[in-house]
Amino acid sequence: MRLKARHEQQSIIPTASMADIAFLLIVFFMVTITFEKDKTQVALPKTELRFEVPKIAAYISVTEQGQIRVTDGESMSTPVGRVDDVDAFAANLVASYPKRPVVLKADADVPYRHIDRIIDSLKQAKVELIYLLSEQKTVEELSGG
Amino acid sequence: MKLRQNKPDDEIPTSSMADIAFLLIIYFMVTTTFAATRGLDFSLPKDDDQPPVVEKEDSVLVEILPNGDLLVDQKPMEQGDVLEYLKPKLENNPKKPVIIKPDQNAPYGGMVGVFDVLRQAKIFERELIKRADRPEMTDEEWDEGKDINISIPTQREIESFWF
Question: Which residues on chain A are in Cβ contact (under 8 Å) with B160?
Fold first, then answer.
């Protein structure tokens, strides 16, 4: 007897919704991404207390070697040749954006005299609020003092 | 006679769409840098022309030495012990001013570490003030008008006004 050819069901993985999921993820990334105005790599000091820094803020970064970069928060940061130029930057910043906070992003090992000079510039320019950027202290570091 | 036409299926090929989308995701994930967006806030004095009048003997002076060691009111102290030292003083006078005086060659991390401890002391102090004078105020209301009594005088200020 001749058997009738079996009708096999095609095995298909439904991939039509894969693109939807992927595009949802892309939209999420695009909405949440914030472009850093200053990309200087520094080893930040570690603190137990940390408060959220406003998204719109001016940045001053100081590397371990004392190299300074500044940005008013509108454009990418630019290097500053001499520390005296921070005075001009701070004065211009307050003139343009009087209430804008300044975020200080400095290496933990930088000698304090560089920071002292910058804080002095900011005080003279009458900047109202600064943030000292930091990393979270870990549990081990907390128990170690 | 009816001819049977072999019609091609009307289909938009979407199988490569997911590949493209995942490539974009990978690109975003690789190029995203997690920015450090937290730190300690520090209000600068409103008017530089009138430095705050602080009696030296009334305040707590925290000096940071070039090697990062601390001298609190001239006594050597570990960073972890500063808070315990300050608490009884703040209980006596919750508005006690604290001055941080880092050496010019001290590491910046040392100053931030001390400031972190003092900010914690100020939270403790806030609780004390709230309990004593303003029990009805919420933390947010208190923060609105906060004037954290921590001063970090700069070298110029020390030379001009202090000594």
Answer: none
